[in-house]
Amino acid sequence: MDTTHYPPSTAANAAPSPRIWEVGALCRAVADALAARFNPVEVRGELSGFSRAASGHCYFNLKDANGQVRCAMFRRSAQALDFNPRDGELVEVVGKLGVYEQRGDLQLIVEGMRRAGQGALFEQFLRLKAQLESEGLFDSERKRQLPLMPRGIGIVTSLGAAALHDVVTALRRRVPQLPVVLVPALVQGAQAAPSMVAALQKLYRLAEAQIAYDARLSIDAPAVAIDTILLVRGGGSLEDLWAFNDEQLARTVVQSPVPLVSGVGHETDFTIADFCADLRAPTPTAAAELVCQPRDVWLGALQLAEQRLVDGVERHLDRQQQRLDMAARQIGRPSALVHGQQQMLDRLGRRLQSAAQSQLHGQDKRVQQLASVFPTVAGRHLERSEQRLAQLHARLELLNPRQVLSRGYALLTDMQGQVVSSVTQATPGKAMHAELADGSVDVVATQRLLV
Q1: Full-model pTM
Q2: What range(s) does the Exonuclease VII large subunit C-terminal domain occupy (predicted)?
Q3: Could you report the per-residue pLDDT of 147-171, keeping only the tens digit for each?
Q4: Which among 1, 172, 224, 259 counts the fewest CB atoms within 10 Å?
């Protein structure tokens, strides 16, 4: 509780007494007032004292000639940065003002950061990137593999660029025997994009001439075969590299008749040309290293291939020498060969005779076996046949009509021998013939009765 005593005031000079704040409450009230008045806020200033903690949070000051403010950028926001902030760099940040209550300091919590002046350029970059990507210029299916052993390399860069020195140094160290064609071009400024387009088209004509020669469509071979093209430039700000974000340059890069490698800026720099190229290298030196294997690697592979070839030839010669020695021994003693063939012929003759005798002996035993069992088998077959015949005879006798006559029945026919089976056929006075079991009689119908 606050126990401070103030002198009493008279009624004449009485005035409202000021509110007595707790320190923490005052800090919170100031923070609320700042949030209501300013947030969110965008600030432009120069980076000072930039540091990145092990937790991933970034702490720095943002200042200009008239003042500075403490800033904190938490890990989630810091991970979204597309560049590495450095002290002295002019940036634009967006965030929220607040009060760090433990120290009572004004603090800006930064949620986004970009290099100053890049807002409009970056938006233009994103629009062009989206347009070209929708047209398929960035498709991986369109991009080609680099040749394993290029016959020549074309380079487009500025004569005064440090990137040219880096690329030439790397190529001279790795493949000093490889021819290189340099077509100089501007790599920065308003005329840089048209200059690089013209340089690339010149290299394209050389590459197409070599392609036509390889296909035997051209008589004269070009002076240098261009199998790979490098488009390189050192690092810089977005404005410095803006020529590589030109639409016409991007479309020209896509039209390359041979694989094209883009090595522009540092590892964190990306341009439209990088997306259109067959391969992006993080630096110009890396681009040179990607397009060619060191000469020592190929020399080592060549020596290994040579040793394998020598070993293979020697093994082949050894085998042929052995065959020659064997043939020489055979030709020097033909009687041994004839004797061997005669022995083989004798063995085959004995095997043939033995096989024939064995087969004849087996057939003879088979005939004897059949002769011994034939009477028994034939007798059983004849007995079964007689039984079958007797059964058929008995069944036939059962169907004999004369057997029916023996039981008192008669077979009645007319005088022409036609069987009388109905009373309608026996008219009164008609003469008929009746056959009985032991003879026959002639009868005359006297009366016809229907049942």
Answers
A1: 0.47
A2: 137-443
A3: 888 889 999 999 988 889 999 999 8
A4: 1
